[in-house]
Amino acid sequence: QALLPRELTTVWDGNATVGLRWQPPVVESPSLYLVFRAPTPMGFADMDFTGAYDVVDGMAMTWADPEPLGTSEERYYLLRAVSVSANGTELSPTSNTAGVFSGELRPGTNAISSPLGSFPWVDYTGLELDTMTEYRVAFGADRVSYMDPSGMWQGVPGMGDPNHVLTSGQCYLVDMSQAPVLIARVRRASMVR
Predict the structure, then answer these.
(1) pLDDT tens digits, one per residue of 1-36
(2) Nearest alpha carbon to residue 122 among 4, 5, 1, 8
């Protein structure tokens, strides 16, 4: 466990670039990191050097995927740290799995949700999007609606609370009158092996 990379988190730049950030192992500094990428959380096949999607310097704590994010795509990533010494090569266990999924908001009404939880080590206060108004502005949407406890749809702008926080597992309606907009949501999963 001395080599285990910690707190792997997916980040999205708001356009088409997905990246990773992480905390280095607590005890030992790795020589390099192996980045693995799969289309599903359990889709990682070969977990050694030959199966790595990319190799990153051991001093790094961030990485950007060189392939742009598509308009309807899921990606999952994990890391393994590698220590190379006179005693041989040691591979760490896998980090947690971090992912992203993207979609396109098209003109008309779109249903969106936030199906999985957030990263527990990320402070989502401040600049992170969380309210109806923040999402409406970020999407360039005419209106974003949520279902209130009585089962009625409440729109923002409209009768809805502009400070209502979007929560995991809920559905929201996004009304768009403009050209399609790419959106992405980062997510976490659990350790693979």
Answers:
(1) 668 888 888 888 777 888 999 999 888 889 999 999
(2) 8
